[in-house]
Amino acid sequence: MSKFSLSDLSLLRFLASQLQKPRGNFGKLLMTKLFNFGNAQLINATLISMDLHADDCYLDVGVASGKSIKIASSWITTGSLYGIDYSSEMIEYCKKNFPHSRCHFVHTDAAHLPFADCSFSKISTINTIYFWENPMEMLLEIRRVLKSSGTFALSFSGKAKMNKFSAVTKHGFFIYDGEQIETLMVKAGFSEIHRQDFSGKFIVPGDHIIIAKK
Questions:
Q1: Predicted pLDDT of residue 102
Q2: Cβ atoms within 10 A of the Cβ of 148, count?
Q3: Which residue has the higher pLDDT, 146 or 14?
Q4: 19-55 confidence digits (pLDDT tens)
Q5: Tens digit of pLDDT for each residue in 200-212?
Q6: Domain 6-213, CATH homologous superfamily name and number
């Protein structure tokens, strides 16, 4: 068996950092394709669970390559769609690929959403919570911009699945199970919380979708 080299470790750390904040040509050219393929089924399942309407005002926190916006726009035909991301490269990519007047993309993080209180009827965040150093701060900020009775969906891979990829996820990922996230959402003031366990053809069991109301 070959020994694990320093170069292998550096590559894994680099991949972990790109998953957190895609940057440079690697982020724009390769990570966008990885996000589009790897997250597609979970994004689809999340949006279906949110019961989107034509006139919704929708925000995706951590929009990455914009797959969520592209899919959601087939339901939201008269409303507006917003995506925010910590990576300026991802925002640049989305603005270039979704130049529609109803689509808006902002470079910011989830702790500092540049929107007024009660701005959105639907909010999602998909495969992002692993990178939140202070999840309560992020959840409170999301709740602030969600309309009364609005729907929030948080989708992620739980500990059982993430541990299968520990070679990467041990580098800067915060890993949770479903019960931990539900507890955080209760503390943040969300209500009517329910969890769906999801697995698909290209996704091993262990993904979760948590839907809540304000």
A1: 95
A2: 8
A3: 146
A4: 555 666 554 555 555 555 557 888 999 999 999 999 9
A5: 554 556 889 999 9
A6: Vaccinia Virus protein VP39 (3.40.50.150)
- HEC-encoded secondary structure of the chain: CCCCCHHHHHHHHHHHHHHHCCCHHHHHHHHHHHHHHHCHHHHHHHHHHCCCCCCCEEEEECCCCCHHHHHHCCCCCCCEEEEEECCHHHHHHHHHHCCCCCEEEEECCCCCCCCCCCCEEEEEEECCHHHCCCHHHHHHHHHHHEEEEEEEEEEEECHHHHHHHHHHHCCCCCCCCHHHHHHHHHHCCCEEEEEEEEEECCEEEEEEEEEEEC
Query: Using CA atoms, how far apart are residues 112 and 134, in angstroms rounded to an integer?
Result: 12
9 has a pLDDT exceeding 70: no
Give residues with Cβ within 8 angstroms of 26, minimum separation 6.
Answer: 18
Tokens of 155: 């989708």
Q: Is the pTM of this model over 0.70?
A: yes
Q: What is the four-CA torsion angle of 40, 41, 46, 51, rounded to 10 degrees?
A: 100
What confidence tier does 1 reach under pLDDT thresholds 50, 70, 90? very low
Report the alpha-carbon distance of residue 132 to residue 61 in Å, rounded: 12
What pLDDT sits at residue 3?
A: 46
